[in-house]
Write a structure and sequence with these properties.
By secondary structure, the chain is of the alpha+beta class. It contains 15 helices and 21 strands. It folds into three domains: 5-212, Rossmann fold; 224-325, Chorismate Mutase Domain, subunit A (Up-down Bundle), CATH 1.20.59.20; 345-472, Phenylalanyl-tRNA Synthetase, Chain B, domain 3 (3-Layer(bba) Sandwich), CATH 3.50.40. A six-stranded mixed β-sheet has the order 3-2-1-4-6-5, sandwiched between helices. A five-stranded antiparallel β-sheet has the order 7-8-11-10-9. A four-stranded antiparallel β-sheet has the order 12-16-19-20, with no helix packed on it.
């Protein structure tokens, strides 16, 4: 009676017959139809019923499911919990609390029994209602395509899928199937309650919409199927962009290349940010407004050093990188030179100093002014500098910033500014400023490595004695 059902099981749900399936059975026509259709198709089943304890007759449904499973010689597991109490404790809606507890039970059972999947009885009617719920929330393509036959829900299990074999069949078909196969569904009075949004959509909104288009449900189902193929295409494109833009991915942080991300379309940027957030916080509800906040930071980099997203996640830009992190993220400091010692280093010429994370500071004397002038004019490496030695007083030190530090950057014709302002203007990473190495002559800052030397000690035509300083990165590890 369910046309092409076995093809759906093998092709869409990708089920095999040599491993068990946990099938969620509430006792209604949809889940009973699914259980019996799977049994007739020759699949190994574990019948699972979760009692939400929301109705006085809920125990009756649990007993009926157990008896039906026994009559069909199927193993069953019955469990339950006070959903209302859980919802109040966790500050969730009844619907959300019921879903969380039910799915937790189903997937725990699937892991215990080494099941290949959790099967649920969602029908085409459920699909239409789900799409409308997402539409009312202002969902994007992922929501409007509705449910799929086979899905991984990371929140509950990263490997065991949930399958929906009845997604192409209408509720009326499951009622007919149950009648033809001697199944006696239980009637759940809560399905008539208008306290739940899905029921209001089912009993109030859908009949109104069908007054405009009698085949409205079929139209929504066709739309969801069409959008599914569009979503599949988007995911393929998204995967390519993800690999192109991603620099690092951990359990607590995602790092993108800023330039590559910024060159993508706005839609691609939003989807990449959403994917990153879902990786760090599986199941989180990511709204358009949250994604737009992140996109705005990418395109207006001076607007803020950090934006809060949702669920404790935050995002910031740093040295042509986009960071999306959890509060627990411990970000590395090895992207730049750092001084972690409490006391300054004395600089000897020639000499070398070991900095944190494998970085090295080098100091040399040069005796060829013309060559130094040529090298300085062509220099594109901001981690090396040639300075007029006669302008530098003793001692030469390498230290971190101090309160009240002033700096006379090259190009400002001897005008001083606060070092803190210079660091902000040059976009030195905020978390790196406290330990950034500074070369000083006496108490005067003469070079901020990676950025600029001081104006007064630059090379001129009159320069005869030259000091050369450089900072080198640690060698990259070979894979």
């Amino acid at each position: 009676m369910l046309e092409n059902f076995e093809a759906v099981l093998s092709d869409e749900c990708r089920l095999v017959k040599d491993r068990p399936i946990v099938v969620g059975v509430s006792g209604g026509p949809d889940s009973l139809c699914l259980m019996e259709a799977l049994r007739q198709a020759g699949y190994q089943l574990i019948v699972a019923h979760f009692n939400h304890q929301l109705r006085p007759d809920a125990a009756r449904d649990a007993l009926a499911v157990g008896k039906t499973a026994t009559r069909l010689m199927l193993g069953s597991v019955i469990d339950g919990m006070d959903v209302r109490a859980y919802a109040e404790e966790e500050k969730l809606s009844i619907e959300e609390a019921a879903r969380n507890l039910r799915y937790r039970f189903l997937f725990n059972l699937a892991r215990e029994r080494n099941a290949q999947a959790v099967a649920v009885g969602h029908t085409a009617d459920d699909q239409v209602e789900t799409v409308l719920m997402h539409f009312l929330r202002g969902s994007g393509l992922a929501g409007l395509k509705g449910m799929t036959h086979r899905t991984i829900i990371e929140t509950f299990d990263s490997e065991i899928p949930i399958v929906r074999p009845l997604l192409n069949y209408w509720r009326e078909e499951t009622v007919v199937f149950c009648s033809a196969n001697g199944m006696r569904p239980q009637y759940d009075a809560s399905n008539d309650s208008l306290n739940f949004q899905r029921n209001r959509i089912r009993h109030l909104l859908l009949p109104t919409l069908e007054s405009y288009n009698p085949k409205f449900r079929e139209a929504v189902q066709r739309m969801s199927q069409s959008l599914k193929t569009d979503h599949d295409f988007l995911n393929e494109t998204l995967q390519f962009a993800w690999e192109h833009c991603l620099l690092e991915m951990g359990e607590r942080e995602i790092i993108f290349d800023l330039e590559r991300l910024a060159h993508g379309s706005l839609g691609l940027q939003r989807n990449l940010l959403k994917r990153a957030m879902l990786h760090l916080r599986p199941g989180i509800d990511v709204s358009f407004a949250i994604l737009q906040r992140g996109v705005d930071l990418i395109h207006n980099q001076a607007a803020s050093t950090r934006v809060n997203l949702k669920g404790g996640l935050y995002m910031f830009l740093e040295m042509q990188r986009v960071y999306i992190c959890t509060p627990e993220a411990k970000l590395a400091f090895n992207l730049w030179p750092q001084i972690l010692a409490d006391t300054p280093y004395q600089v000897n010429l020639p000499g070398q100093l070991e900095l944190a994370a494998g970085w090295k500071f080098n100091a040399e004397r040069w005796h060829l002014p013309a060559l130094a002038q040529e090298q300085a004019q062509e220099n594109k490496d901001q981690f090396q500098v040639w300075l007029d030695a006669e302008k530098l007083s003793e001692p030469l030190m390498l230290r971190t910033r101090r309160a009240g530090d002033q700096f006379e950057p090259l190009g400002m014709d001897g005008h001083a500014q606060k070092l803190s302002d210079f660091m902000v203007n040059e976009k030195i990473p905020q978390r790196a400023r406290a330990h950034w190495p500074l070369l000083t002559a006496g108490d005067t800052i003469v070079w901020v490595p990676g950025y600029r030397p001081a104006h007064f000690c630059r090379l001129t035509e009159a320069t005869n004695q030259i000091f050369y300083f450089s900072i080198s990165k640690p060698p990259e590890k070979l894979e």
